[in-house]
Design brief:
The complex is a heterodimer of chains A (274) and B (347).
Chain A lengths: L9 E10 L2 E11 L4 E6 L5 H8 L7 E6 L2 E2 L5 H7 E4 L11 H6 L14 H14 L14 H14 L4 E5 L7 H18 L2 E5 L3 H7 L2 E6 L2 E6 L1 H4 L2 H8 L3 E5 L6 E5 L12
Helix pairs in contact in A: 4-5
Chain B lengths: L1 H8 L2 H33 L7 H8 L5 H36 L11 H16 L3 H22 L8 H24 L2 H12 L7 H28 L3 H6 L4 H23 L5 H13 L6 H21 L8 H18 L7
Classes of the chains: A alpha/beta (274), B mainly alpha (347).
């Protein structure tokens, strides 16, 4: 439906980000190739979420710039930016009693002004987003009554109704059991492959990231430690320096993507010895 | 056969939206009907009772001199003021409660009414102000409290209960200031200020009604814009940002609008308590579906205040109390119920 236009290129140049008085990210350069699925991994507090919030224009950079097809995103009108880049934050909140259909419909917001009435076209696009995520049968259920996995699919449906060409997701599988984690990641991959939407996901689970990512970005202390194909990037050295964890990396017997196996016994190797 | 085809072709999204719209139409329609019934009662009941039919003919210019005087100079302006003030307070309450995601947020509990009240008492007692200048004074007082609260809660992601507690503190402070001014004032002036501070609709001139109407009309575009944004900011600042809505801008517009609506009512009829708290809390569950019910709160607020004014005038035989006493009494019970049940927890 939306595969007509190619996804724009999202680039961070010399980016600094964080909070007043505390820079989490300093001088970061990163390019997200259009139409690919990128996973960002890294230890807690390494700046993954901070990076995502600046890429999505939720927070302003403290230095440098984020560019969309070469244009500084701070200069793009908010609504127009929201038509091409969407973010699913870690903890979105749904008002009590709001139905699934209405929540997904709110994703149409960037495409409507105060005076525009809801159109049949809007309805069609909301339905398409719900069909893609398989939440159509839940249309009249309250969002609060759904299970964790269902709720996450509903939020993804809302982000899809927005029809972004670049979709950023902050830990979309947290609090989900393994089968629902797989379900969400399968869904994201399908969206990426069928619509050509650029997808950037912050993920905690290394092995799933390695399995689903076209490109893997490893972050540590606000810097990009490694960036590239999972099999090139995810080495014992990188795992050791980014996660302070001794690990064995073997090919996944199913997909041949790297599989990280922590060395048991809690032997921690300090980062500076690696 | 056709029924089967219909259920297959009707889209689930359109069906849900239609159901929400239908329910809103029923709720708003019922509220407006209630307003009409209460308005007829307000125009008919009084020391000079009139049949609804006489009220009708008088409204169209067919009444005698006494009837015309009673309707046009006494009851109609009072009714119009009650409708306007009730609607304005309902709007202000719905805006603030949705913004802060807290059913306890209202101009009175946040100290905004108190700030407007203290500024107005100062205006009445020391500067001898009245009318639009007094309204402006009350607006500045309310805005000062709102600005203080916003600055205090600036670095917090959710401005929920901490902000309410700060507001309750500010409300006490404003009461102390008003009381201090009253104690030092001349008895007659203090008496006038006291009646005003309780909130009263008696002896409303048309000129006041017109001023309030103009201010409320000016606020309508801002209210419409807020109603467009609030469902989005309700989902969190990050989600809002990703949908192209800047939460900090919405916050300022909502607060200034709510302060304006509260202050103008404060300046002309005094701080009427609890209507802003109750109206949205009644409107929302009636609408269901997580609706924020800004327009419905206006209708419910108007009905509430007209009803409260009827009670204030006629519930106790021979005694007419200021309407603020009645809304305060109803509201206190309502607030206790809100706190005792789960309804008070979040939106």
């Amino acid at each position: 439906m939306t595969s007509a236009s190619a996804a724009p290129r999202l680039t961070a140049r010399g980016l600094a980000a964080g909070y007043p008085g505390r820079r989490v990210i300093e001088n970061l350069d990163l390019e997200f190739a259009p139409g690919r699925m990128t996973m960002i991994i890294g230890a807690n507090a390494c700046g993954k979420s901070t990076l995502l919030s600046v890429l999505a224009r939720v927070n302003q950079p403290l230095g440098g710039a984020v560019e969309l097809d070469g244009v500084d995103i701070q200069t793009i009108p908010r609504r127009r930016f929201a038509q091409s880049v969407g973010l699913l934050p870690q903890h979105p909140t749904a008002p009590d009693g709001l139905t699934v259909a209405e929540l997904v419909a709110r994703g149409r917001h960037p495409h409507r002004s105060v005076f525009q009435r809801w159109s049949a076209d809007d309805t069609a696009r909301v339905e398409a987003a719900m069909a893609k995520t398989g939440v159509t049968p839940l249309a009249d259920r309250a969002v609060g009554d759904l299970s964790g996995g269902q709720r996450q699919r509903v939020w993804i449906a809302m982000a899809l109704a927005q029809e972004p060409r670049v979709l950023l997701l902050d830990e979309p599988t947290t609090f989900l059991d393994l089968s629902h984690q797989i379900e969400v990641l399968d869904l994201l991959r399908t969206l990426n492959r069928t619509d050509g939407t650029t997808i950037v996901v912050v993920l905690h689970e290394l092995n799933l990231a390695a399995r689903y990512a076209d490109d893997l970005v490893v972050m540590c202390d606000g810097r990009v430690v490694a960036h590239g194909a999972p099999s090139d990037v995810l080495t014992p050295d990188v795992v050791s320096s980014a996660f302070d964890l001794e690990a064995l990396v073997i090919p996944d017997p199913l997909t041949t993507t790297p599989l990280v196996i922590p060395v048991p016994g809690g032997t921690h190797v300090p980062a500076d010895q690696s | 056969m056709t029924a089967l085809v219909d259920t297959e072709t009707v889209s689930p999204v359109a069906a849900v939206r239609a159901r929400v719209r239908r329910r809103r139409a029923i709720v708003v329609g019922t509220a407006l009907l209630l307003v009409v019934v209460l308005a007829v009662a307000a125009l008919s009941i009084g020391d000079y009772p009139m049949a609804p039919a006489d009220v009708w003919t008088t409204l169209w210019g067919g009444g005698d001199r006494v009837q015309s005087y009673v309707i046009f100079q006494v009851r109609a302006p009072r009714l119009a003021m009650a409708l306007l003030v009730g609607a304005a307070l309902g709007l202000a309450g719905a805006l603030l409660q949705t913004l802060l995601g807290n059913p306890l947020a209202s101009p009175d509990l946040l100290g905004i009414s108190g700030g407007a009240g203290a500024a107005a008492v100062f205006g009445i007692l020391t500067l001898g102000l009245s009318g639009p200048v007094l309204a402006l004074f009350a607006f500045v007082g309310g805005l000062a409290v709102a600005a203080f609260l916003l600055l205090a809660g600036r670095h917090r992601a959710d401005g929920g209960y901490r902000l309410i507690l700060a507001g309750v503190g500010v409300a006490f402070l404003t009461v102390a200031i008003a009381n201090f001014l009253m104690v030092r004032a001349k008895v007659e002036l203090a008496q006038a200020a006291l009646i005003w501070l309780t909130g009263s609709l008696s002896s409303t001139p048309w000129w006041n009604v017109a001023t309030v109407a103009v201010v409320v009309a000016l606020a309508i575009p801002a209210v419409v814009a807020c109603a467009h944004w609030l469902p989005i900011t309700q989902m969190g600042a990050q989600t809002a940002a990703s949908l192209g809505v800047r939460a900090s801008t919405v916050r300022v517009v909502v607060v200034v609008t709510a302060v304006l609506l509260t202050a103008v009512t404060c300046a002309f009829v005094g701080p009427i308590g609890f209507v802003a708290l109750c109206a949205p809390a009644i409107a929302r569950p009636l609408l269901g579906h997580g609706a924020i019910g800004i327009g419905t709160s206006a209708a419910v607020g108007a009905a509430l205040l007209v009803a409260a004014d009827l009670v204030a005038q006629f519930a106790l035989p021979g005694v007419s109390v200021p309407v603020g006493v009645v809304t305060g009494a109803i509201g206190a019970v309502f607030l206790l119920w809100l706190l005792a049940t789960s309804k008070g927890r979040n939106l």
